[in-house]
Design a protein that fits this description.
It is built from 14 helices and 19 strands. Strand 13 and strand 14 form a beta hairpin. An eight-stranded mixed β-sheet has the order 5-4-13-14-15-12-17-16. Strands 7-2-1-11-19-18 form a six-stranded mixed β-sheet, sandwiched between helices. Helix 2 packs across helix 9 and helix 9 runs parallel beside helix 14. By secondary structure, the chain is of the alpha/beta class.
Length: about 425
């Protein structure tokens, strides 16, 4: 089958590799001229790494990543006279065979939980794509619109490299919209269905920066650590074997007046948002300000309402184009990776009809991604308790459970991290 993928991000590249794995011919259309180093970290959980294990890329990703000890939550603002008070901690990558105690068990026995720099993640995927004789990637190429018949889809694209923009038409058996939250493919599809096309601003912005560990006086814990406060929270974790520290600070903000989803922020605003927070967090922001190569980004968080359908004829959606979500479960990229395997397996298992294969893809993926979207939104409310009473009522039971019943907290995450899309598809179709 000939497949065109709009978007060469994590979801698009992973989809290309999955489709090529099953013998399909793939063209990836990427709007940028080259992949750039973007100052952001990504959590790479076991449920995503299971796909890369089958593709032969898990060791390459592990070699560039950091393995956190645990997932934990702390109070970023002063509570009962101190900051940094631990709420709970769930072990991640620790396994001691001689001790069957729950505290020694990893959150997933099959694959580790990793933190990885986005540029490193992309570099591994891009290198694998360039090695494949079934995949072609075209940079400086944007999808404008599509049309389709019963047996083909035509894609009008604009090439912008080296000269005046030039339009061209590409034909394929299937068009996959992996072109992100502002997806052109999604917009056209929903317009034809007379559905809402835009993502909603969620009322929160995210500060993001990456600093060298050597620049810090106060080091964050070697965990995926969420720090809670009134109407805001922060997340810290290490990248590149611990050489870098990633910071994300989410703050409620009533309006957002920027068209772009990625903008430079000011250190004064960021430090004011986290004034009087734990010195680990303010120290990261100050280190970024003093760094010669430090970059501070301010992102508006947008999300889509869950869709009833992701497909139209020979066109379908994947990743953020299909189910953009809040980052409060750190599963946005992982859901795109799961989508990639599921879609490629469905179109391979049902070659007699694209419509049938896309129906199976949606039936398998929409319930899970919708649940992740909803759980992410629920976490936003938990993370951002605005009163002392709300904090006490919310965090005290979590604190007690973390001390007395830590396995219960871990068990509540099993549906997320122990899910294996490869095994799921094997069981349903082989």
């Amino acid at each position: 089958m000939e497949i065109v993928i709009a978007g060469g991000g994590i979801g698009g590249l992973t989809t290309a590799l999955c489709c090529a794995h099953f013998g399909h011919k793939v063209t990836v259309l990427e709007t940028t001229s080259a992949y750039e180093t973007i100052g952001a970290g990504i959590q790479l959980p076991p449920n995503a790494l299971m796909v890369f294990d089958v593709l032969g890329l898990s060791e390459s990703l592990k070699a560039l990543a950091f393995k956190p000890d645990a997932i934990e939550t702390r109070l970023g603002e002063a509570f009962m006279g101190r900051t940094g008070r631990k709420i709970f901690k769930v072990p991640l990558n620790v396994v001691r065979e001689e001790n069957a105690d729950y505290k020694a068990k990893a959150i997933s026995e099959k694959q580790p939980y990793l933190h990885i720099y986005r540029a490193d993640y992309i570099s591994v995927l891009h290198a694998a794509v360039t090695r494949s004789d079934r995949i072609e990637i075209q940079f400086n190429t944007k999808v404008l619109r599509y049309s389709q018949s019963n047996d083909r889809v035509k894609i009008l694209v604009c090439h912008k490299a080296n000269a005046e923009p030039r339009n061209a038409e590409i034909e394929s058996d299937l068009l996959i919209g992996a072109d992100g939250i502002h997806s052109t493919v999604r917009t056209q599809m929903l317009q034809s269905k007379r559905s809402k096309t835009s993502a909603d601003y969620t009322g929160s912005i995210a500060w993001r920066c990456v600093v060298k560990r050597s620049q810090l006086t106060y080091l964050p814990p070697k965990t995926a650590c969420a720090w809670f406060g009134k109407g805001k929270h922060a997340v810290t974790y290490y990248l590149r074997k611990g050489a870098l520290v990633n910071f994300v600070g989410v703050v409620e903000q009533r309006t957002w007046d920027r068209e772009d989803w990625l903008a430079q922020g000011t250190y004064e605003d960021a430090l004011n948002d986290f004034k009087d927070w734990d010195p680990v967090l303010t120290g990261i922001l100050n280190a970024c300000r003093k760094s010669d190569d430090g970059q501070l980004f301010k992102w508006a968080l947008h999300a889509h309402d869950p869709l009833e359908s992701w497909s139209e004829g020979r066109v379908t959606l994947l990743g953020d184009a299909a189910h953009a979500m809040l980052p409060f479960l750190a599963q946005g990229a992982a859901m795109a990776v799961e989508d990639a395997w599921c879609l490629s397996k469905c179109i391979t298992d049902y070659p007699q009809g694209i419509t049938l294969s896309l129906q199976h893809y949606e039936s398998l993926r929409i319930p899970r991604t919708t649940k992740v979207q909803k759980k992410s939104a629920e976490n936003a409310r938990i993370f951002h308790q605005k009163t002392k009473l709300g904090q006490l009522m919310t965090y005290s039971p979590m604190f007690i459970a973390g001390r007395l019943f830590p396995r219960l907290i871990q068990a509540r995450l099993d549906w997320l991290y122990k899910y294996n899309i490869v095994a799921e598809m094997h069981g349903k179709h082989d």
